[in-house]
Amino acid sequence: MVSQYDCLLPEECLQIQQQLHSLKDKWEPRLGDLPFYTLGAASYLDAGKKGEFFYKMKAKRFNPLLKEHFDSLYQKVAEVLEKETGKPVVYEENYGYPGFHIFLFSEVFEFNIASVHFDLQFQELSWRYKNVDQLHPLSITLPIALPGSGGGMFCWDIHYRDVKELPRSELEKRSQEEEPVLIEYSPGQIVVHEGLFLHQIAPAEEMKENDERITLQGHGLFCDGAWHLYW
Q1: pLDDT at residue 130 greater than cutoff 90
Q2: At what angle do helices 52-85 and 10-22 cross, to 10 degrees?
Q3: For 167-184, what is each residue's pLDDT tens digit?
Q4: Which residues does residue 226 pair with via DSSP β-bridges, in sequence order?
Q5: Distance (Å, whole) CA 200 – CA 114
Q6: The pTM is what?
Q7: What domains are defined for the chain?
Q8: Residue 124 three-state SS
Q9: Distance in angstroms (rounded) separating the CA atoms of residues 127 and 133
Q10: Using one digit for the tens of pLDDT, what is the confidence trace for 62-75?
C-alpha cells in the first residue's frame, strides 16, 4: 500500500528548509488566517477550483523558480523513483512541478481537520499522450521538516475503485467506522503510494511554537513509457 525510501541526508533537509524560508515572500496562504502555505502550483487547489488553464499559467510562473532553487532535489527524487520503479522519470513541463506544503505552528493543527481523500488530481487535467495509465497513478511525499513529536499520514484499506459510487457522507462514515493505519514519516525518506487508498494528513501532537511541517508533494502518471511527475 505504502513504500518508503531513503532520499535525503539530514543536512540536505536543513538546507532545503533554509532555502524555503529565503523564499517566504513566494509562499501562498491556503487556509485563511491559519499558517498553512504552499510553494508551487497545486492541481488539487488550483485546477480543481479555477480550472486547468489557470493552473497551467501558475505552473509556468512557479516552475522556473522551483527549478532554480531545488534542481538537485528534483534530481534526487527522480533517481530514487527510477531505481525503485525501474522506469524513466520526467517532470511534466506543462503542469506544476512537485511543490511544498508548509505548516507553521498553530494549535489547530493538533486536531483532526485535514480532509479524508483520494488523490484524483489527474482527472482534472488533459493528458495528451498516446498511452496514459490512469489506473495506477503515483503519489509522493518527501518530509523535509517535521514537528518534534513527528508527523505522518492515516491510510485506510478502502480503495477508490470499490467506493467511487458512494456519496461523500457514506465514505466519511466508513472512514470513522474503520481503523486507519498510521504511516509515520521521517525527514529525508520519500513516501510512495498510488493515492487511491483513502488517506489523510495525521494531526500533529503537542506542536511547539518553533515546529514546522514541511513536505515536498507530487504525483505521477505513467504516460508513453515514463513516469510524468507533477503536482
Answers
A1: yes
A2: 170
A3: 999 999 999 999 999 999
A4: 223
A5: 6
A6: 0.97
A7: 2-23+34-225 (2.60.120)
A8: helix
A9: 10
A10: 999 999 999 999 99
- Across 114-178, the runs of DSSP E, i.e. the strands, are 132-145, 152-159
Whose CA is closest to 137, among 194, 217, 88? Answer: 194
Cα(217)–Cα(141) distance, integer angstroms: 5
> Which parts of 101-156 fold into alpha helices (H)?
none
3-state helix, strand, coil in the chain (%, to 5): 35, 30, 35
102 contacts 201 by C-beta, under 8 angstroms = no
Q: Could you tell me which residues come within 8 angstroms of residue 214 by beta carbon, excluding any fewer than 6 positions away?
A: 17, 20, 100, 101, 102, 103, 143, 144, 145
196 has pLDDT over 90: yes
Q: Are 140 and 7 in contact (CB under 8 A)?
A: no
| Mean pLDDT across 27-36 | 98
Say whether pLDDT at 48 is over 90. no
